Amino acid sequence: MSHLNIGVPGAREYYPMNEPAIGTHLSSYAWLQSGEQPELFKPIEIKGVTFKNRIFVSPMCQYSSADGHATDWHLVHIGGFATRGVGAICVEATSVVPEGRISPEDAGLWTDSQIAPLKRIVEFSHSQGTKIGIQLAHAGRKASTYAPWIKDRAGHGTSWVAQENENGWPNNVYGPSAIPWSETYPSPKAATEQDLQYIEDAFAAATKRCHEIGFDFIEVHGAHGYLIHEFVSPLSNTRTDQYGGSLENRLRFPTRILERIRSEWKDKPLFVRISATDWADGPEKSEDGTWLQWGIEQSNAWVDKLLTLGVIDLLDVSSGGNWAKQKISPVAGGNIEHGYQVPFAEAIKKAHPSLIVGAVGTITDPMIAESYLRDGKADVVFLARELLRNPHWAIKAAKALGSEAKIANQYERAW
Ligand SMILES: Cc1cc2nc3c(=O)[nH]c(=O)nc-3n(C[C@H](O)[C@H](O)[C@H](O)COP(=O)(O)O)c2cc1C
């Protein structure tokens, strides 16, 4: 019998085949005595796509794109997750138009030349048995700003606007209304009906490119004070036309984008990330029924609508980013506590038990993460910073939970 080191079939070049896929729970391999399958490692199927576990990489901007094109930084950054056991990777906020980028170095998918570098990353991820999707975005009034470390150097109170000589586009920033996010941000124009059609068409064109690239899912960025969140929140949307005022009107354009994406994306998994609250002072609604800020009641109403229209398969529940004076609570000792956004995920899951819900936000402890799923508060967890600190979190989590997940053959000797 020969002992060939088999390569991944169909891969661009030779890499050893990992079987089962890295990050798969090894409960079916009795010889490993890996114990019971933790909730975090139960595969989940979404619209015919099976994710090997429920630990998802949250989208993370890298400010490392060349005119919106993914670079080798992205291949290495994302490739590192693909080889270390997560169930899925969501590629960073990727703008559907150039002026929808947060910073000049953000990712984009507005032109066909952006397809090839992403395709290479997706094919690599697939060769490692890891599902991968992309977050489609438009930054709205928060566009044309510096990358975070450049902001830090500029300091608070100074302008964070990337000017034209810094590759920015401060005179082409728009949102639902002409209200800047803060005095350090660009002064936006109110989008016209024509602008809205152009944005909708750009989301549809980017979705077509996602098909060609081979992404397993799309996540629409409806959170953190970017364009879609700006439309749904009464704090940033003061329009008096059919896109502003009543809740129905504020939801109109964001919902239209999702319907358009669904018609292009067909029956593939469509995720939506929302901010479940603006974290502004005071209640979501006044006593006379006026909506004062975005919150959980309107989030639930929007989810009802999206479910009825069949334009959501997973809701990724985040918060904040649309109100410069936001006060996030509860705060423990100055640090945002573990799973501080989980109560929002839980509330939405409770109201919509059939919806697949993702929890995100300071999730670092495997036991606590496991408890969120076991207690039915969410179906999957998204991790960002903890995975930057510890890309092997999934493998370590399996061990912390008294079981084993498949480690890359190439890394076995480390464990
Ligand atoms: C470097 C970095 C970049 C981020 N970029 C994005 C992004 O592109 N889209 C998004 O929705 N959230 C983004 N976020 C937020 C994360 O996805 C996540 O929601 C947040 O960091 C809370 O999760 P954590 O406590 O596990 O880091 C980013 C966070 C970090 C740290």
The number of domains is 1
Indicate the percent of residues in helices: 25-40%
Which structural category do the helix and sheet elements fall into? alpha/beta
* Beta-strand segment tally: 15
Mean pLDDT: 96
User: What is the CATH C level class, in words?
Assistant: Alpha Beta
Strand order of the largest sheet: 3-4-6-9-10-11-14-15
**Terminus-to-terminus distance:** 29 Å
Small-molecule binders here are: flavin mononucleotide
Low-confidence stretches: none
Q: What amount of the residues lies in strands?
A: 5-15%
Pfam family, one: Oxidored_FMN
Keywords: Flavoprotein, FMN, NADP, Oxidoreductase
Cofactor: FMN
GO molecular function: FMN binding; NADP binding; NADPH dehydrogenase activity
